[in-house]
Fold this sequence. Notes:
Elements: H1 3-24, H2 26-33, H3 42-65, H4 75-80, H5 95-120, H6 123-145, H7 170-182
Amino acid sequence: MDVYYLYSYGTAAWLTLQSLPLIASPTLIVTMLSPEVRTPSVLEEYFTRTLGITLITLGLLCVLLTGSVPLTSSFSETASIAASTDPADPKAPYALPTLTITASYHTAIAFFCYARWSTIGSSAFAIATIGHACLAVIGLWVILFATSSGRISRKTGADKRMSGFPFGNTESDKKRKEGHKSL
């Protein structure tokens, strides 16, 4: 399994793991995140369960839109070709936008959870910070290196689009001159 699928399924698993206590027991969530122990109001219970169902939906959409689960009409089409992040790939045309949006989501939630953890000190926010930060880093890595339009070289780590302006690349110039001399 490559990192592309790891990120897609990891995001779905993490969001599903977060949604289960939201759906099963809103009282547990209110108790963990509130300084005082109390029963949740009807509105809090509604919002926690709705958020849980939304997280499951977001995880499923991430898996489906990144092409991790093939959505073709015939089995023979799916057995031979893996999904890619190429925008022209008909199996996953929304792969790169989905990766970008979910990586941004994980980054924003990681910062939010860290801010709440540093002010409140709840261990639930610390665990959420670690989980979302790991997925944000993996998502950034997938966008930079594992996509068909990745701009960072895997060997050198340099941006492939960079030019020599305003500084010249003397090592490259030397190698070009040596290559022309041998011809």
